[in-house]
Amino acid sequence: MAPASSVSAIFNPLLVPTLSPACHSHSSSVPLRLSNVRVLVVGAGGIGCEVCKDLLLSGFRRLCVVDLDTIDVSNLNRQFFFRNAHVGLSKAFVLAAACSALLSPTERQALARKRARALRQLQQTGEVDSDGEEESEENNDGKPGPDADGQAPLSEAEGVGEREGDVCIDGRTVWGVVGQKMNILSSDFTIQLLQTYDVVISALDNQKARRHLNGLCIAADLPLIEAGSTGYSGQVMPILKNETLCYDCEAKPRDQQRFPVCTLRQRPERPEHCIAWAKMIYELVFGVEDNENLLSDLKEQLRTFLDVSSTAEAEGREDETSLPGTHEKGAGEDSAGTREEAMRLMSRKMMKELFHDQIVDLLRLSQENKEAMKKQELLPTPLCVQGLTDKETFEASHCRASEDTKTTNKGPKQNAIAPTENTQGEGSGLESQRTWSVQECQEVFERSFLGLLERQKTTERENAGTGKREAGIPFDKDDDLAMDFVAAAANLRMHNFHIALKSRWFIQAVAGSIIPAIAATNAVVAALQVVQLFHLLQFLHSEGRLRHQRREAPQEENEKRKPVKTLRSDSNCRYVWVKPFVTGVRPDAAGRLILPEVVDPPRASCFLCQQQTVTIELASLS
């Protein structure tokens, strides 16, 4: 490996240092035990789930997971530790219990004994043995200790990762994986609490919480490994006070619009969610084939409508009476009218599939889950599609009954549709700024669907003539047909979920700036966080700067040590960027998707890094 101090050195950020569960450093006679390193993971979402799994499989055995949220049905498609039975429970508790299940029963029991012993010690004496290795045969409260085989009573071995009683968990009592439902912005999440841990890993997804955690870690002089992801891009930043940039050293753009697939599919709450969903539906039906589309499992189902429409068109050329109700005109006009009616029927059936059948399925799923029913103020309403056949009259009447029920609901949630909002526009000046009614949205959906279908067939014929295999119409917000389709679909989706409809102008502005959240990127970013944690621990241990590391060297020897090294020049820690495309001078031969950068010093303009911290102890004079 090239020296870390060389700026131009080629460094592989995936090169994990040779850290075993108990490794020695050249400057310390005390081995670094990964199983004794106290790690606080803040956030149990997409990145948090992956980080906890990676940490546990890497040998860490003292993890505390903090998150305020509870599991919703919409989380199940993206956060893979959660199941339908977990809906309504704390994310942190469920994640901790699921990660603990990765360990053997014997190890879980041993960790549970250590945690129970540490809790008793903290309660009785206010102090806890740092490693929990010295266990007596009988505890102070008279309970028997482990037997000769190292086994503890089953009551003490259960519940690793499922404890709910503590207001805030002291890092000295953390053994195994422990979950805590907690708001990090609350007064209980203090600097003193953070100082009971060795390192903090951030898995947060909003700037306010990340800035707050960054400030607390700087004040506590605690290492922080910050990370984030946006679409196919991501970054990892190791942060150490007075040595590296902090999260606030550089101005951050506003939180970009990125939405998890679970929110888009099952519980949209804002117009942006519906717009992102509509854009993905467009890409799925008319765009270039993309396996990374978050709705790709619907591809075959929706493509069936296109295949049926193609068959109907072919039959229309041969049979002038394929559909009843056409006017008797010339053979050519009659055939064209038949094909057009077939296409219109297909568009309505697709509309019914997207805005009626799938909503009915979602209602059935919600009704089976009582916790989801309690959390939803208004259930989604299936759309009554115009032009349904006689066989679907019953479903149409069900739609009307659902709409009547919706209008009688009291206390609608924010953004619920007012009775006049479907017909009155947001702006009365330009047509693009007028909000369409639900009926107009159906008409625009049908018209744009037919136009896009015709253009797609024309493109396919041209590609077949030139020998090209790839066919599709990429989304362009300046493409009128594509934009009409997305705007109509988004508004119909908003109607399903009682969200105020928006103008085409508003939807066009949002559709051009949406970046989806991708689970694979979260997994890559989480793995890079763990790699940077290895490099950070290796450096801190070699310098004797790990917060809870035992120091056996005498004080005189410590005073004669060489000047303290810095994380920037004497470690393998790097800022790591995950790119959405291959970069480099020769991308085909030696391109990269993961780019490391040398760690920069704190900015002189950063208020947080330049402020001095003074600890004042108040003595009682009473």
From TrEMBL:
Catalytic residue list: C262 (glycyl thioester intermediate)
Xref: InterPro entries: ThiF/MoeB/HesA (IPR045886), ThiF_NAD_FAD-bd (IPR000594), Ub_act_enz_dom_a_sf (IPR023318), Uba2 (IPR030661), UBA_E1_SCCH (IPR019572), Ubiquitin-activating_enz (IPR035985), UBQ/SUMO-activ_enz_E1-like (IPR000011)
Family, per entry: Belongs to the ubiquitin-activating E1 family.
Protein name: ThiF family protein
Keywords assigned by UniProt, alphabetized: ATP-binding, Ligase, Metal-binding, Nucleotide-binding, Ubl conjugation pathway, Zinc
Highest taxon in the source lineage: Eukaryota
Cellular compartments per GO CC: cytoplasm; SUMO activating enzyme complex
GO biological process, one term: protein sumoylation
A GO molecular function held by the record: metal ion binding
Organism: Toxoplasma gondii VAND
Known pathway: Protein modification
Residues noted as binding ATP in the record, renumbered to the chain: 43-48, 67, 75-78, 91, 205-210
